Amino acid sequence: MFLFNPENLAWLSHILSLRFLDLSLVDLGAAIQWSQAINKLHSLVHLNLNGCVLLPFTTGTTLVHLDLSSNDLNGSILDGFGNMISLAYLDLRYCAFEGEILFAFGDMRALEYLDISGHGLHEGILDAIGDLASLTYLELFVNQLKALPKTFELFLSHNELEGEIPKSFGRRLVILDLSSNRLYGSIPDTVGSMVSFESLSLFESTPK
Asked: Hey, what's the signal peptide range on this chain (predicted)?
């Protein structure tokens, strides 16, 4: 039988060549200095901590992939993310963040995938992601947005978007999910000029 004690992860700090670490669904709520051990892994690029009962913490700057979804990191989104200049994938679904994002994503110019679904986030998120030049996938369903960001894959179901569907979606948009919002009016003619468009969902919205 494999016996794993999640309360003491100090041994991790000695695996200096470790690049991939998946601790998903491991209860780290009582772990001692686990984040300090992980931050000593300077070769680590892929870290999955989905559903680990985490408390707020700081992370290393070498990561490329970080999954913190389904943790109780309540409060404002952690300031430390802004220093992770190599990060390309960030999943923060259902982490109990509340209100507007109170930090800038800083120099995360490599970020391509961002999921902040399932929070009470408002328009502050749009300002925070505005300078993410590499962003191609953005998932924001079940928030309280009332305005639209611009990216290539938009998942905006179950927000509070109102009014006409805008004509300003980029020609390179691939996926657009506006389901369960309060939209009205005609579908813009510009949708027909989206040369890369593959998927459109307007379920429980009210376009004509």
From this structure: none
16-20, 30-34, 43-47, 203-207, range with the lowest pLDDT: 203-207
Q: How many domains does the chain have?
A: 2
Output b/e per residue, 31-47; b: 16+ Cβ within 10 A. Answer: beebbebbbebeebbeb
- 1 and 47 fall within a common domain: yes
The average pLDDT across 125-139 equals 70
Closest CA to 21 of 46, 51, 57, 54: 46
CA distance 90 to 46: 11
User: Is there a domain that residue 91 lies in?
Assistant: yes
Q: Give the CATH number for residue 10.
A: 3.80.10.10
User: Does residue 156 fall inside a structural domain?
Assistant: no
Owning domain of residue 1: 1-145
Which residues, at least 6 apart from 1, have a Cβ–Cβ distance to it below 8 Å? none
The total of other beta-carbon atoms located within 10 Å of residue 127's CB is: 13
pTM above 0.85, yes or no: no
Q: Please give the pLDDT value at position 208.
A: 45
